[in-house]
């Protein structure tokens, strides 16, 4: 009887040592598998998003001088006509690189070489500066001036000087005429005087209204003006 119990105990012990860890390891593998799948899914989503991004090729500038990839080129002469195809090396040796450069203005094909033109560096810089200056001058900045219908004479004079200065500099000015809380209501004469002063200042500065007035006289009124060009 004791021998039988010892056999059963030995069998149970062996079962606990070998079979139970295998089951536990299987459970562990089963629990770990979804984490692995989630990682793979996340990696796939990231790589898929990268593929969906729009490809934007870099903007390439036209090649100049030795960067022109052609053995022969056609140069635009002073009359605006094309010279016969000439070796690129000969063209590059025909001018001073300190003052001029050769720019490819049109790509070539199987039948025709690239079209190039010789430019003066000083003239190109002067043209770029003039172009940048013109762009800055055409860019109009909007300035805003707020006036109270019941404004006193001193403050009104100061604001009108600002208005005149902005208009003379070519700025577009937005004048907002309004009432303020906890301030007395303006009289009819004050409303007329402020309105007339603003219109006179715009006219004397050489400006005009760029669009119709918006709002109501004596309450909130918006005037937009700019100097005539």
From TrEMBL:
Pfam families referenced in this protein's UniProt entry, alphabetically: IF3_N
Organism, as annotated: Penicillium vulpinum
Keyword Metal-binding recorded: no
Keywords on record: Initiation factor, Protein biosynthesis
A molecular function (GO) term: ribosome binding
Family as reported in the entry's similarity comment: Belongs to the IF-3 family.
Record-given protein name: Translation initiation factor 3 N-terminal domain-containing protein
GO biological process: mitochondrial translational initiation; ribosome disassembly
Domain Translation initiation factor 3 N-terminal: 64-135
GO cellular component: mitochondrion
């Amino acid at each position: 009887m004791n021998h039988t119990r010892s056999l059963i105990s030995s069998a149970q012990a062996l079962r606990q040592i070998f079979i139970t860890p295998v089951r536990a390891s299987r459970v562990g593998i089963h629990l770990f598998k979804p984490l692995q799948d989630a990682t793979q899914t996340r990696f796939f989503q990231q790589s898929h998003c990268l593929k969906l991004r729009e490809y934007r090729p870099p903007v390439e500038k036209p090649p100049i001088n030795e960067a022109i990839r052609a053995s022969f080129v056609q140069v635009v002469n002073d009359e605006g006509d094309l010279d016969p195809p000439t070796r690129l090396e000969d063209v590059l040796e025909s001018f001073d690189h300190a003052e001029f450069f050769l720019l490819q203005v049109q790509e070539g094909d199987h039948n025709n070489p690239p079209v190039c033109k010789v430019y003066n560096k000083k003239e190109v810089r002067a043209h770029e500066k003039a172009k940048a200056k013109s762009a800055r001058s055409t860019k109009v900045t909007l300035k805003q001036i707020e006036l109270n219908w019941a404004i006193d004479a001193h403050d009104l004079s100061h604001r009108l000087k600002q208005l005149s200065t902005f208009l003379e500099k070519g700025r577009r000015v937005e004048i907002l005429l309004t009432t303020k809380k906890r301030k007395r209501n303006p009289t009819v004469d004050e409303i007329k005087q402020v309105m007339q002063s603003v219109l006179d200042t715009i006219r004397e500065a050489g400006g005009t209204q760029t669009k119709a007035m918006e709002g109501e006289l004596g309450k909130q009124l918006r005037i937009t003006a700019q100097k005539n060009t």
